Amino acid sequence: MAELTTLARPYAKAAFAEAVEQNALVQWSDMLSTATQFAADDSVAKILVHPSLTAKQQATALTDLCGDKLNQAGKNFLMILGENKRLTLLPEIVEAFEELKAAQEHAIDVTVTSAFELTDAQQETLSLALKNKLQCDVRLTGEVDLSLVGGAIIRAGDLVIDGSVRGKLAKLAEAMDT
């Protein structure tokens, strides 16, 4: 996984630089997401790795599927990925691009995994607290994992705060083993 991220990073940086230069971060984000969605389709994924097709044919197939959802720069980007046999890296490229975009916008995506669905008031309180702590805008996404028993796990980039009952029990068991 780390190797794929390492391979994807230069492409994400190049796309990001182009998006900043064109003042089109949202458009590039949409284009990359669209291409990734098409590439994730099973039949398209087979085309992107089919040994009898040239890299240009693979990239052309993907750009044709995306149609008018890509501008010329987006099509050129996919052609370069195709030439370098990197079309399968699109998910990792999108992830790296979105991280760069969030940093540019001084925003961070936060995932809160809790044992129960958070209310709107809880999400608002948590968003405000994280915004103050992280000094940036927070885009909160909630997930439910019943195995947590109670509490929550908060993931914001590299920061992970485990306030779940399951996590606390695991720490207690570890302390008792020593």
From TrEMBL:
The record's section on Gene3D superfamilies has: N-terminal domain of the delta subunit of the F1F0-ATP synthase
Q: Which GO terms describe its molecular function?
A: hydrolase activity; proton-transporting ATP synthase activity, rotational mechanism
Pfam families in the cross-refs: OSCP
Q: How does it sit in the membrane?
A: Peripheral membrane protein
Keywords, comma-separated and alphabetical:
ATP synthesis, Cell membrane, CF(1), Hydrogen ion transport, Hydrolase, Ion transport, Membrane, Transport
- List cellular component terms (GO): plasma membrane; proton-transporting ATP synthase complex
> Where is this chain's protein located in or outside the cell?
Cell membrane; Membrane
Q: Which PROSITE patterns match?
A: ATPASE_DELTA
Q: Which domain of life is it from?
A: Bacteria
Q: What is its main location?
A: membrane
Its family remark reads: Belongs to the ATPase delta chain family.
The record's listing under HAMAP family reads: ATP_synth_delta_bact (MF_01416)
Q: What does this protein do?
A: This protein is part of the stalk that links CF(0) to CF(1). It either transmits conformational changes from CF(0) to CF(1) or is implicated in proton conduction.
Q: What is this protein called?
A: ATP synthase subunit delta
- This chain's source organism reads Oleispira antarctica RB-8
Q: Lineage of this protein's species?
A: Bacteria, Pseudomonadati, Pseudomonadota, Gammaproteobacteria, Oceanospirillales
